[in-house]
């Protein structure tokens, strides 16, 4: 019985681990898809809608642990840095939203292109 319980516990742990991976991967897919849509948008409404979806996914992802950091404490330097990267992205999204709200769509798109640098930097560390 003890062996069966251990096997069941291990299976449950692996299942939860793969669910967490799927969730963060889903968030990253949402961010990537909407990033492409935002850059292709030809009006402020479509641009802002894409950014809103990106922001929601970034906020959701910020609360999760990337697979590479599994087992790290919530207050570890790595987790703080991961959340800092998400905060940078969220701030950039907010800045682009503000420009779009002011009717400066091209300026907002120029700023949005900088999201890629943030992504590249933090993907190197936590992907």
Automatic annotation (TrEMBL):
User: GO molecular-function annotation terms?
Assistant: electron transfer activity; heme binding; iron ion binding
Q: How is the cofactor bound?
A: Binds 1 heme b (iron(II)-protoporphyrin IX) group per molecule.
Q: Give yes or no: UniProt keyword Transferase.
A: no
Cofactors per UniProt? heme b
Its function, per the record, reads: Electron-transport protein of unknown function.
Q: Which family does it belong to?
A: Belongs to the cytochrome b562 family.
- Protein name according to UniProt: Cytochrome b562
Q: What's the source species for this entry? A: Affinibrenneria salicis
């Amino acid at each position: 019985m003890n062996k069966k319980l251990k096997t069941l516990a291990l299976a449950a742990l692996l299942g939860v681990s793969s669910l967490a991976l799927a969730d963060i991967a889903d968030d990253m897919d949402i961010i990537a898809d909407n990033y492409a849509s935002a850059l292709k948008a030809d009006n402020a409404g479509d641009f802002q809608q894409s950014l809103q979806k990106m922001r929601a996914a970034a906020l959701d992802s910020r609360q999760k642990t990337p697979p590479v950091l599994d087992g790290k404490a919530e207050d570890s330097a790595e987790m703080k840095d991961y959340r800092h990267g998400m905060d940078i992205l969220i701030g950039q999204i907010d800045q682009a939203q503000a420009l779009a709200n002011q009717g400066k769509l091209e300026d907002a798109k120029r700023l949005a292109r900088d999201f890629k640098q943030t992504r590249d930097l933090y993907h190197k560390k936590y992907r």
